[in-house]
Amino acid sequence: MENPAGAPQQGAKAEGGPAETLPRQFGKYTLLRKLAAGGMAEIFLALHRSMAGFEKLVVIKRILPSMNTNKAFIEMLTHEARIAATLSHPNVVQIFDVGQVDGTYFIAMEHIHGEDIQAIVRAMKKKELTEFPLEHTLGIVLGMCAGLAYAHEKRDLDGRPLSIVHRDISPRNIVVSFTGDVKIVDFGIAKSGVEPGEDTGSGQLKGKAPYMSPEQASGQSIDWRSDIFATGVMLFELTTGKRLFKGASEFETLKLIVDKEYPRPSDIRPDYPPALEHIVMRALEKNREVRYQSAREMQGELEAFIREERIAVSQVALTNWMTMLFEDKIAQQKEALQDMKQLADVIAAQHSGLYEGGTSTGTGAMGAAASLSTMPPPQKKSPAVVIAVAVSVALGVAGLFYMRHEDAQATDAADAGAPAVRPEVAEHKGSIDITTKPDGCSIWINGDLRPETTPAKVDKLPLGGTIKLKLTKEGFEAYRSDLALTEADPDKKLEAEMKTGSVTVILKIDPPPTVWLDGKPWKGDRGKLEGLSAGEDHKIVLSATGFQPKTITVNAQQGETKTVTDALLKAEPGVPGPMPTPREGKPDPVPAAGGPAKVRVGAKGGFCNVTVNGTSYGPTPVEAQVSAGTVRVSCKPASGPVLSQSVSVEAGGTARVMFKVDP
After folding, report:
1. How far apart are CA 461 and CA 214, in angstroms?
2. Using DSSP, how many helices (H) and how many strands (E) does the chain show?
3. Domain positions in the chain
């Protein structure tokens, strides 16, 4: 770059310098009003005028001077923006132009007349609406899936995959227009961040921690399935009304994503539809190989759920709902929008006088526009006031969702005519000091999983209401308690003795099988499974020589005994046989006549039951000890034909076999 670092540039203000006066010309665009500013760029509402009376409102994202001097950053930014500009889909914001004006880089993108999800939730709270309508949630997430599927599958002109990943699917980057359109914004720009180990210079190009996938949160390489995980987080939150990952700090939030168990929607809402819960939890699988393998697959299951449940998802209804939420704002815009043609004419007529002279110190059009935020509008509209009022009233709230950083939130509130509010300023005074026998129990407060485990003191809790506390630990019953924290009694101490699981499952299976419980071999009586935790889904895998393995799921209440009576079906040749008697949680090794060796077997797209040299090892992934030489490996999915491979392994070596299984 020719300009030295930190130097002011035409069309931009130096950091710490006076704000530029608008409107002004910026290349072929007219910057009308600044909408927001962040650590990387400034956002402007702009007008693009061309021949034959062509006029179009656009949003200009203009890179800050400090970033314009970073060649590596600019190269990455323009490369990703060029890729994003190739996207043309109803559910993806359109990028029209990438360029440079007087040394300042910019991106011109579609102007959307609407609000992001975060703003919609704020508007709901103002109208005392506590639940996001299910039909609108599903309509929005369907639009997200459609836009993501298009971008993930996009290829260049030579047919090569572009491998586009958004990286920052979050409430601020999903916009609903006042005509019911769903748009993903900032597509491609979020991907312009460098890989770990390189320096962006700003540290701003990263996803929002509460919506990161486990692989993204742990610093691993990511692919399109990270966007699917983030979509699952948003679906969970919109349908339950609860944040999924909310730690005391960003680090604690990332630990929740990577290390902790996830709540199920039905933990928060007992009446939650089971079919929808299945979709949510599959999108939230920690293992991306088990997660939905495409956004289109998730979209298909959502559409099937909508058809089966006959849910009235409608763009017209979404339009009406948005109109109801923002009726006051839309009414204020209606008259001012009629002045847009006059606005364009004034800007064109005064082009030479307004845009070439720099900052104005007088009280003419430029001064009026600059001081509008502190002056009431005059009764009679002059051309200058037409400019200011039309832009600030009709369009002042549009485009705010393009900023991805937290410092834009205060600007959002100011542009909307409301005082800036810092998030989570509500005063909290209560606390609960929790101890358990045994230690290490997970803590749930009002349906939210906390980062702490017992013993722990949970503070900053709201007063005057009921705190719903739940404690969980594998192999024990969930402990629940409702606690009231008041001004007179803000601090509570709770001692809980966890009870071992009380559910019993009686198995009457013909023939008597080998049993695996929740992915682990069952070591006790194979006809009676005792000590299971209540209210949880338990997966039981049954297997016997010459019979097809069978998987059943049981869920029982505290103290309940369930009896399962069934008969295994005869297996076809090649179907896995019985699981060996477990030894310290592992199958007995096969005698090694040709020297000991190992075979590791996995599956992509799902799971299957594995047989190695005629011995069953249960569901993937497995590791089998074998004799060196040729090893026959079979894989039986839940449905479909048996898959088989033969591999050669040397003594002391390890062979790896991977099967591709249809989900």
Report:
1. 28
2. 17, 32
3. 1-111+326-395, 115-324, 430-497, 503-567, 584-660
pTM confidence score: 0.54
Q: 115-324 is classed in which CATH architecture?
A: Orthogonal Bundle (1.10)
Both tokens assigned to 446: 């009002």
> What is the predicted pLDDT for the residue at 198?
40
Please choose, from the candidates 97, 115, 87, 11, the residue with its C-alpha nearest in 3D space to the C-alpha of residue 48.
97
pLDDT digits (tens, 9 = 90+) for 153-208: 988 888 888 888 998 899 999 999 999 999 998 765 545 333 333 443 333 335 78
Strands, sheet with 608-612, edge to edge from the N-terminal-most edge strand: 615-619, 608-612, 629-637, 643-649
Contact 635, 659 (CB under 8 A): yes
Residue environment code for 462-495, b if the CB has 16+ CB neighbours within 10 A, otherwise e: ebeeebebbbbbeebbbbeeebebeeeeeebebe
Please say whether the dihedral angle defined by the alpha carbons of residues 268, 269, 274 and 275, taken in this order, is positive or negative: negative
Quick check: 599 and 647 in contact, CB under 8 A? yes
- The total of other beta-carbon atoms located within 10 Å of residue 216's CB is 24
Question: Could you tell me which residues come within 8 angstroms of residue 590 by beta carbon, excluding any fewer than 6 positions away?
Answer: 612, 613, 615, 624, 625, 626, 627
**CA-CA distance, 365 to 156, in Å (whole number)?**
47
Domains 115-324 and 503-567 share a fold: no
CA 482 to chain centre: 31
Q: How far apart are CA 127 and CA 455, in angstroms?
A: 40
308 sits in which H/E element: helix 295-309
Residue 647 Cα to chain centre, angstroms: 40
The CATH number fitting domain 503-567, selected from 1.10.10.60, 2.60.40.1120, 3.40.1190.20, 3.20.20.70:
2.60.40.1120
